[in-house]
Amino acid sequence: MSNTTSNPSKANTLARVQALIAGTKQHFPNGSFTFGSTVYTTASLIGLLQSLADAIVAADTAHAGTRDAVATLRAARAKVGPVMLVYRRQLLGMFSNTAQTLADFGVQPPKARTPLTSEKKAAAVAKRNATRQARGTVGKKKKLAVKGDVTGIVVTPVTNTGASTPTATAAEPASKASSPASPTK
C-alpha cells in the first residue's frame, strides 16, 4: 500500500493490520522475525497484530454503543423533560408555602422577589423615557392627535353615460387632460 498518511483512520489502520496478517500467513507460515532486539515467530507476530485489530474493533463497538446510548438519552429527555417541568410547576403550586415538602421532592421554593430601590426605579424611568424619545414613540392620546395633511388632490366623479362605444367628443377631452399645462409667471 502506498498510503502514507501521518495519522491514518481506524478503518485504514484495521485494513492495514488485516492485510499484514493475511500476507504473513500466506508467505511466512513458519517464519522467524527479529525487530530491534525482539524475536517474533509467525504465530507471535500474528497474535500481536491481531491484538491491535481486536482493540480497534472493540473501540468501534464501544463507540457505536455510546452513540446509541446518547441517542436513547436524548429521546428520553425529549419525552420526559416536559412532563418533569409540568410536574415541578404543579408541586410548586401545591406546596409553595411548605419548603420542607418541596425539599422532599428535591424542588427549591422560588425566591422572594426583592423590590427595586428608588435609585433603580428612577434609572429605569429615565431609560424608558430616553428610549421612547430616541424611537419617537408617543402615547395613546398623542397618537390620536396626529392627523395626516393632504393637499393638491382633485376628486372627479365618474358617471356612466350608458353608451357602449366611445364618441369622438369623449376622446377629445381626454387628449386635453393629458397635455401638461404651461406654467405662468
Account of the 3D structure:
The structure is a single chain. By secondary structure, this protein is mainly alpha-helical. It has a domain at 10-104. Helices cover 61% and strands 4% of the residues. The protein has six helices and two strands, in the order H-E-E-H-H-H-H-H. The protein has helices at residues 10-27, 42-94, 99-104, 118-135, 140-145, 168-178; strands at residues 32-35, 38-41. It has a two-stranded antiparallel ribbon. A hairpin with a 2-residue loop joins strand 1 (32-35) and strand 2 (38-41). The radius of gyration is 44 Å and the shape is elongated.
Number of H/I helices = 6
Q: What structural category characterises the helix and strand content?
A: mainly alpha
Overall mean pLDDT stands at 83
- Total DSSP E strands: 2
- The separation of the N and C termini measures 96 Å
Radius of gyration: 44 Å
Measured as a percent range, the helix fraction is 55-70%
- The percent range for strand residues is under 5%
Low-pLDDT residue intervals, each spanning 5 or more residues:
174-178
H-E string? HEEHHHHH
Shape: elongated
The main pleated sheet reads as: 2 strands, antiparallel
What's the arrangement of strands in the largest beta sheet?
A: 1-2
Give a quick summary of the entry:
The protein is mainly alpha-helical and 185 residues long.
Name some characteristics of this structure.
185 residues, mainly alpha, two-stranded antiparallel ribbon, 6 helices, elongated
Topology overview:
Layout: H1 10-27, E1 32-35, E2 38-41, H2 42-94, H3 99-104, H4 118-135, H5 140-145, H6 168-178
Antiparallel strand pairs: 1-2
